[in-house]
Amino acid sequence: MNPVPTAENPFAGDNSGIQKRETAARWALRVGSYIVVIITLAIMLHIFIKGAPVTFQSKWPFVNTQFLTELPSQLHVIEDKQGNHYETGVNGADAIKKQLGDNFRSEKTIAYSGGGILGPIVGTALLVIVSVGVALFLGVACAIYLSEYAKHGKFLEMVRLAILNLAGVPSVVFGLFGLGAFVLTAPVFVDVPADRSVFAIPLGFTTLSFEGWDTCVLSGGFTLAFVILPVIITASEQCLQAVPQGFRETSMALGATRWQTIRYSVLPFATPGILTSSILGIARAAGETAPIMFTAALAFKDKLPWQKDLPPLPADASIFAHWEQSVSRFLGIFTESVQALPYHIYTLAAKIPQNEYSERAQYGSVFVFLVLVASLAASSVLLRKRLRAKYRW
Amino acid sequence: MAAETPAPVSEEPLIQVEKFNYAYGDHQVLFDVDLNMHSKDVMALIGPSGCGKSTLIRSINRINDLVESARVVSGSIKIDGVDLYAPNVDVINLRRNVGMVFQKYNPFPRSIFENAVYGLRVAGIKDRHDLEEAAERSLKSAALWDEVKDRLHEMATGLSGGQQQRLCIARAIALQPRILLMDEPCAALDPIATARIEELILQLRGQYTFVIVTHNMEQAKRIADRTAFFYKGKLIEEDDTMTIFNRPNDPLTESYITGRLA
Ligand SMILES: Nc1ncnc2c1ncn2[C@@H]1O[C@H](COP(=O)(O)OP(=O)(O)OP(=O)(O)O)[C@@H](O)[C@H]1O
Ligand SMILES: [Mg+2]
User: Fold this and answer.
1) Do A215 and A101 sit in the same domain of this protein?
2) Same domain flag for A226 and A126
3) Of A115, A144, A167, which residue constitutes the final position of a domain?
4) Do both A217 and A162 map to the same domain?
5) Owning domain of residue A93
6) What CATH number is given to the structural domain containing B78?
7) Which atom of ligand 1 is nearest to the CA of B57?
8) How far apart are CA B44 and CA B223, in angstroms?
9) Position B245 in a domain
10) What is the CATH number of the domain that holds A172?
11) Pocket probe mutation, ligand 1, options B20, B27, B29, B60, max atoms within 8 Å of Cβ
12) What is the spatial distance between Cα B176 and Cα A11, in angstroms, rounded to a whole number?
């Protein structure tokens, strides 16, 4: 029988049903969270176990410098009659075969799995620099306009909606957009427009030709910038909105213009948040594959972007000529196609026959990539902490 | 005190509010306000919450222009006979002449020095010596100099609430404005800090024209030469502070100051 309230215990009653449901709900939520944690840990652990041995070693300097400083290359695996395996690059293969002589049994070559991953690391770094630079400039400008200048109303709502939608566009669409916009039609200054030029505007001393930037860091960086733009705009706008309205009023009440107010009393206090969000943008940009596949990245490239054969300068070349060549060499970095980490991982995983050697290169790359992203995230947290401490209100 | 020196009413008023109607969007909040304020007077604006005191005071330096929906429906506010809402008025110039101190003390999270000279910096003054001189002068007149002179380059947010509010006053008077608007300057302060601000206002009396919004009747009595009572967006009456508090004309005023107004 259900207990009923009495004079001694006016709160008596049966709540066992309620408590059962409480317990069930709590357990369902708890199990759900545990599953997420376990799966995340399992993935991390798996990558760590398989990837760490490729990147680290037990001997000094404890880091596999070859893996981090060499370009990817073909791996040769030579087997002798006793079943011993010798791994080597292209150049070492003949020497080992000669040494083995009659003892030689077989030779296997595995694409992209030898050497290191310096090329992809450099490529990803360059793509990130360009994309974050472009996205920060455009995104912060847009956020400032939306937050500080634009009047509330239909137009503003539409722009916000458009930005939100941009965030939902599949990244391969960005890739195709980048191909059309930056690789094939973006404007360049040339002396003679190419045949494929969409149209050309003669400027006298040069011609502005819409013939595209070709497959290069610049095209890929701009494409990636549009991928992370929504994140940066939304986050920057939130950071600007978080600056107390009182700062704006006080500043304007002291005779500041709107731009002075933004420059001195809004932006500095929004910067920590904007930087944090941009670092998260870096992680996103570094990890995207589809947007760079058509615009910047190659599956394989045996040169770093600055390894270019420029004609040697004459011995008596002026300082100016040297300077000019350095500048063009530097700018040339951004007009080269590159390898990139996510695309390299994709190539290793999906484009070549799988075996223990390709798997090793693959997990090593994934591990390095995760370490890079994790350190970016960590530095974003640290940076935010330090800036927050400086600008508190 | 305040009431023993009745303000000279004969001369031309400095601020003239004439048939002023003001609205946020379709929501009108000030109705036909007519109010004259004389040079070097301390004018207190009192009235129940939401009656439009802040709106009026924020219209005098046009800081309410920042509120998107805010607009003048009709009427005018004039300073020295110049309509502030005329198209040829430069709001930047206006705001340099009409300083404002807000309810919530809000120094920028910068150094005390940078706060004190903010208005001068944005006005384009770069000379270090001029800035230092101005900072010292304004901090002295805000009775803050002795407390901060050794820590000018520390963060202003490290000061006590009362000190921060005095810094905000210093920051406003660094531009040597003619008028100082204060919207409940003591609302966020404890009684001791409040007393210091009141003391400061009494010290500065005669140098600036003050317009002060307050919910504190005693404060109005202590510092104001004249007091204006607002109710639901209308000016009910305006007179000598002592007259308002001792012999108010309107029964509404009387019930408000005696705390009987619902
Ligand atoms: N930014 C705004 N947008 C729309 N309406 C507003 C805005 N600010 C004030 N109002 C309205 O205008 C009226 C007057 O407000 P105001 O702030 O001037 O009153 P107040 O007398 O200063 O009140 P309090 O004593 O509470 O500060 C109120 O009805 C308020 O709701
Ligand atoms: Mg108010």
Assistant:
1) no
2) yes
3) A115
4) yes
5) 72-115
6) 3.40.50.300
7) 18
8) 8
9) yes
10) 1.10.3720.10
11) B29
12) 70
Residues with Cβ < 8 Å from A47, sequence gap 6 or more?
A: A363, A366, A367, A370
Number of domains in chain A: 3
Using pLDDT thresholds of 50, 70 and 90, give the confidence band for residue A83: confident
What pLDDT is stored for residue B2 in this prediction?
47
Q: What is residue B1's predicted lDDT score, i.e. its pLDDT? A: 44
Query: Mind giving me the DSSP string for A60-80?
Result: TTSB-HHHHHS-EEEEEEEEE
Is the same domain home to A344 and A235? yes
Strand (E) or helix (H) holding A250: helix A245-253
Closest CA to B44 of B259, B189, B196, B243: B243
Same domain, A94 and A123: no
Q: What three-state secondary structure class fits A158?
A: helix
Has residue A64 been placed in a domain?
no
**pTM above the 0.90 mark?**
no
Pairing of strands A72-80, A104-115: antiparallel
Written as one letter, the residue type at B164 is: Q
**Residue A160 domain flag:** yes
Mean pLDDT in residue range B147-162: 92
Q: Which domain holds residue B185?
A: 2-106+177-257
Q: Which two tokens stand for residue B224?
A: 């104001």
| Cβ-based neighbours of B93, under 8 Å, separated by 6 or more | A255
Whether residue A211 sits in one domain with residue A83: no
At residue B172, does pLDDT exceed 80? yes
A48 lies in the same domain as A90? no
Taking an 8 Å cut-off on Cβ atoms, the answer to whether B102 and A246 are in contact is: yes
Q: Could you tell me which residue, B48 or A336, shows the higher pLDDT?
A: B48
Whether residue A45 lies inside any domain: the answer is: yes
Q: Using a CB-CB distance cutoff of 8 angstroms, which residues of chain A are in contact with residue B68?
A: 151-152
Distance CA(B48)–CA(A194), nearest Å, equals 75
Distance from the Cα of B88 to chain A's closest Cα (Å) equals 17
- Please check whether residues A379 and A233 belong to one and the same domain: yes
Sign, CA torsion B245/B247/B253/B256: positive
Indicate whether A239 pLDDT > 80.
Answer: yes
Number of domains present in the structure of chain B: 1
pLDDT-derived band at A100 (thresholds 50, 70, 90) equals confident
Residues A19-65 pLDDT 10s? 899 999 999 999 999 999 999 999 999 999 988 888 887 777 777 77
Identify which of A67, A140, A256, A133 has the alpha carbon closest to the alpha carbon of residue B123: A256
Is residue A146 assigned to a domain? Answer: yes
Q: How far is B102 from B108, CA to CA, in rounded Å? A: 13
Does residue A61 have a cis bond before it (omega within 30 degrees)?
Answer: yes
Q: Where are the beta strands (DSSP E) in chain A?
A: 72-80, 85-88, 104-115, 187-190, 200-202, 207-210
Q: So what's the pLDDT on residue A196?
A: 81
Q: Which of B109, B123, B168 sits opposite A255 (nearest CB)?
A: B123
Interface of B with A (CB under 8 A): 61, 63, 66, 68, 92-93, 95-96, 99-100, 102, 104, 106, 108-109, 118-119, 121-123, 157, 168, 171-172, 175
> Residue A331: is its pLDDT beyond 60?
yes
Tell me whether residues B122 and A260 touch, CB distance under 8 A: yes
Residue B117 lies in a domain: no
Residue type, A58: S
- What count of other Cβ atoms lies within 10 Å of the Cβ of residue B76? 15
> Do the strands B82-83 and B27-37 form a parallel or antiparallel pair, or are they unpaired?
unpaired
Question: What is the residue-averaged pLDDT of chain B?
Answer: 91
